Amino acid sequence: MLSFPGGRPPTPGTVGELGEFGLIRELTSRLTATPAVKLGPGDDAAVVAAPDRRVVASTDVLLEGRHFRRDWSTAYDVGRKAAAQNLADIAAMGAAPTALLLGLVLPADLHATWPVELMDGLRDECDVAGAAVVGGDIVRGETITLAITALGDLRGREAVTRAGARPGDVVAVTGWLGWSAAGYAILQRGFRSPRAFVEAHRRPEPPYHAGPAAVALGATAMTDVSDGLIADLRHIATASKVCIDLRTEAFDVPAQMHDIGQAVGVDPLEWVLTGGEDHAIVATFPPDRKLPARWRVVGEVRHPSAMSRVTVNGASWHDGGGWDHFQGET
Q1: Count of CB atoms within 10 A of residue 13's CB?
Q2: Any alpha helices (H) in 102-228, and if so which ranges?
Q3: Coil, strand, or helix at residue 230?
């Protein structure tokens, strides 16, 4: 009796040989649903319940060679990461993720196992967040490209935006910081270990629960850390018209990250403050608010200012502190 990994036979042939509709059937057959999905893939559009009557939506594009490399990450890794970075945006508004839509560009000569494993990764990350893949589109192109749209439901809560930080608020973080950047540095040098940091780059683990929980804790502003802590806090500072100061002594840098930094000639604090793609959640809270242990207070909101900025120990960081898609490091 034959047996196959995951209980399924391998998908035969290339994307072109399988054809658009054959590939769609193969991908959608692997999906699961949630109670929010009233009508999944197979019709002109999906139907997703929105009991709150407000839908939180976010979208991202991932391009091979720019946002992922097939020699570094499996298709499954790419699926997990693509879903995570979009679902984290939903959680960072204080909403519960409900659904994800996929636009997929594929070369015809790509083996069909690649999009199948990609879909498995998307599905499994959605399962972690309590969401489901509900539809999308596939077209032929020269470069693998993913366009992801994530949806969420506020469940009666008010959305927490970037614009509510007030002088005197504390700045607190939950989730990993700097791990993905350290993993990226390892991969750039042709290594695959320490594995925990490499896996953090391949498959980030956003604290999805923390976004909605932060609303109940009275968060005044919030975002996920996608471009680097300083860069993303700068968005909060600008939207809130305040200055924010971080304290380096508040960050817990793991000993192994110090070892990696020493090996590659980088201060690990650089990864913590400017490394993106961990998708931790950073929020501001009233100073008298007692926060659970999973939240680490790392700074405070200072005076109002039309020239909003983020400082570290009262001074400007030595570089811009984040990532800009058109300028690179800022």
Answers
A1: 13
A2: 113-129, 179-188, 195-202, 210-216
A3: helix
